[in-house]
Specification:
257 residues; alpha+beta; Immunoglobulin-like; 2 domains; 4-stranded antiparallel β-sheet; 23% helix
């Protein structure tokens, strides 16, 4: 690093443009200012919006990855330990002798697919035009054949009834007797303070009566939640004897009657 001794304009102290200067043991110095690698923090976002920093000091890619993917998936995992992580993901890592925890396996499995679904990764989040497609999230995984045709998930705003329908065809190790689990994720993914704001309905802690051959199930949630497009539905299976275990989930955007 070269030292800066002086000039007709004096000595550099602090940040000026692309340079930064100071003094060490009486020696004045100046160097190129290196931008921090962590450019996607919430503090920098607020600084950007306030005009304190220029756009090049902030990275929407880093910010979106943190806030819309890892933060959201981590929150879903933490708030659904008993009904999802313990019965599905903790069992999966134990069965596969994986060294990571169930919640970390859930995040790792879903993160790339949720991130890839964001239309404009280097632009600001917008719930209508630039939001991750949470139907890409895997809320279950395993070696059993999954649902091969998730036909629809329809939410009735007046009654709170949400009807899931699917195709019962199997091609690999699935059977008509496989148990079918239904989950529902209510948007939005974050609130105005960039904190996770969704809610996951459903449980894998009990064995449902519904099977592949049933082809439909009704989940009742609070009414008055708005359009069906405010939520995502998920379906996955578990074999009746619980020898194979769970299947990967399939998800789709909800709709209204």
């Amino acid at each position: 690093m070269g030292t800066y001794i002086g000039s007709p304009w004096g000595f550099v102290r602090g940040k000026i443009g692309d340079a930064v200067g100071g003094a060490w043991k009486g020696i004045d110095w100046v160097r190129v200012r290196v931008l921090p690698t962590q450019r996607g923090t919430l503090d920098l976002y607020y600084d950007l919006k306030s005009g304190i920093i220029p756009p090049e000091r902030f990275s929407y890619k880093q910010f979106n990855l943190r806030r819309l993917v890892f933060q959201v998936l981590g929150w879903i995992g933490r708030t659904n330990r008993a009904n999802l992580i313990a019965p599905v993901w903790d069992r999966l890592v134990a069965k596969r002798k994986d060294v990571m925890t169930g919640i970390n396996k859930f995040i790792q499995t879903s993160a790339l697919m949720v991130w890839d679904s964001l239309p404009h990764k280097d632009e600001e989040f917008d719930p209508d035009t630039n939001a991750p497609d949470m139907s890409k999230m895997l809320i279950s995984d395993g070696d059993l054949e999954g649902i091969n045709g998730f036909t629809s998930v329809v939410y009735d705003n007046a009654t709170g009834n949400c009807t899931f329908t699917w195709d019962d065809r199997v091609y690999k190790n699935g059977k008509d007797t496989d148990k079918v689990y239904a989950f529902l994720y209510l948007k939005p993914v974050v609130n105005s303070q960039w904190r996770p704001n969704g809610y996951l309905y459903g449980t894998a802690a009990i064995v449902p009566l519904v099977t592949r051959a049933t082809k439909s199930v009704i989940m009742t949630i609070p009414d008055g939640l708005g359009e069906g497009t405010n939520m995502y539905g998920f379906l996955f299976c578990r074999d009746a004897d619980d020898e194979i275990g769970f299947s990967p989930s399939v998800g789709r955007l909800g709709q209204s009657p």
